[in-house]
């Protein structure tokens, strides 16, 4: 891909834009469900449960929590260094930025707002008057990332070859395989094997040369 042809950057969220821990693990410490979430994360990483099964087992943790409750819990989630600065630099070049994640939209929402990212994917929880009831509205898996990004790209007349996907794990591989450039950022071996470029760095600034900035 010619650097000048980058039209859209799709970021994974957990361990790509976050530092040290996923949004769900951070939430578990704030909400007192550490043991339960640790168990689910181990099972998911080991491939013994799917994203759907993870959601089925964890949605109830959000019962009776409001948008404000979640925002307060996520307020001190540590992001990768220079996260907002780099995203603003990318957008200043006229490049679209979205978040494509298999995590809970409820947890991503307050961070996306901080980063001025309006479009983000994830598992949807049922809510009334901005209070979650612990039920699921829709699931979101690694293959849904392709559909999500394709839909956004179609709406904005962007070809897949002009898209950069940035991620760190196996849930990014399906998207990596269809976009113009795949960047494994602080990624595991599975993601690295399917990436065009590999970056290991604690600052998002190291991404910029790979998208021509």
Automatic annotation (TrEMBL):
<dbReference type="GO" id="GO:0006564">
    <property type="term" value="P:L-serine biosynthetic process"/>
</dbReference>
<dbReference type="Pfam" id="PF12710">
    <property type="entry name" value="HAD"/>
</dbReference>
<keyword id="KW-0479">Metal-binding</keyword>
<dbReference type="GO" id="GO:0036424">
    <property type="term" value="F:L-phosphoserine phosphatase activity"/>
</dbReference>
<dbReference type="InterPro" id="IPR050582">
    <property type="entry name" value="HAD-like_SerB"/>
</dbReference>
<dbReference type="GO" id="GO:0000287">
    <property type="term" value="F:magnesium ion binding"/>
</dbReference>
<comment type="pathway">
    <text>Amino-acid biosynthesis; L-serine biosynthesis; L-serine from 3-phospho-D-glycerate: step 3/3.</text>
</comment>
<keyword id="KW-0028">Amino-acid biosynthesis</keyword>
<dbReference type="InterPro" id="IPR036412">
    <property type="entry name" value="HAD-like_sf"/>
</dbReference>
<keyword id="KW-0718">Serine biosynthesis</keyword>
<keyword id="KW-0378">Hydrolase</keyword>
<protein>
    <recommendedName>
        <fullName>phosphoserine phosphatase</fullName>
        <ecNumber>3.1.3.3</ecNumber>
    </recommendedName>
</protein>
<dbReference type="GO" id="GO:0005737">
    <property type="term" value="C:cytoplasm"/>
</dbReference>
<keyword id="KW-0460">Magnesium</keyword>
<dbReference type="InterPro" id="IPR023214">
    <property type="entry name" value="HAD_sf"/>
</dbReference>
């Amino acid at each position: 891909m010619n650097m000048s042809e980058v039209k859209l950057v799709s970021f994974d969220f957990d361990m790509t834009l976050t530092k040290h821990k996923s949004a769900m693990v951070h939430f578990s410490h704030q909400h007192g469900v550490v043991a339960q979430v640790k168990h689910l994360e181990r099972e998911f990483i080991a491939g013994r449960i799917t994203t759907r099964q993870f959601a089925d087992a964890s949605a109830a943790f959000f019962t009776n929590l409001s948008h404000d409750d979640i925002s307060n819990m996520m307020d001190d989630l540590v992001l990768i260094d220079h996260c907002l600065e780099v995203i603003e630099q990318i957008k200043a070049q006229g490049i679209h930025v979205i978040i494509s994640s298999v995590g809970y939209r409820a947890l991503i929402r307050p961070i996306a707002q901080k980063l001025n990212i309006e479009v983000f994917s994830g598992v949807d929880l049922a809510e009334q008057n901005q209070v979650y009831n612990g039920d699921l509205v829709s699931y979101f898996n690694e293959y849904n990332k392709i559909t999500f990004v394709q839909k956004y790209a179609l709406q904005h007349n962007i070809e897949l070859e002009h898209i950069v996907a940035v991620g760190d794990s196996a849930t990014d591989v399906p998207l990596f395989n269809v976009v113009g450039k795949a960047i494994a950022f602080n990624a595991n071996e599975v993601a690295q094997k399917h990436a065009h470029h590999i970056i290991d760095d604690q600052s998002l600034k190291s991404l910029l040369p790979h998208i021509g900035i």
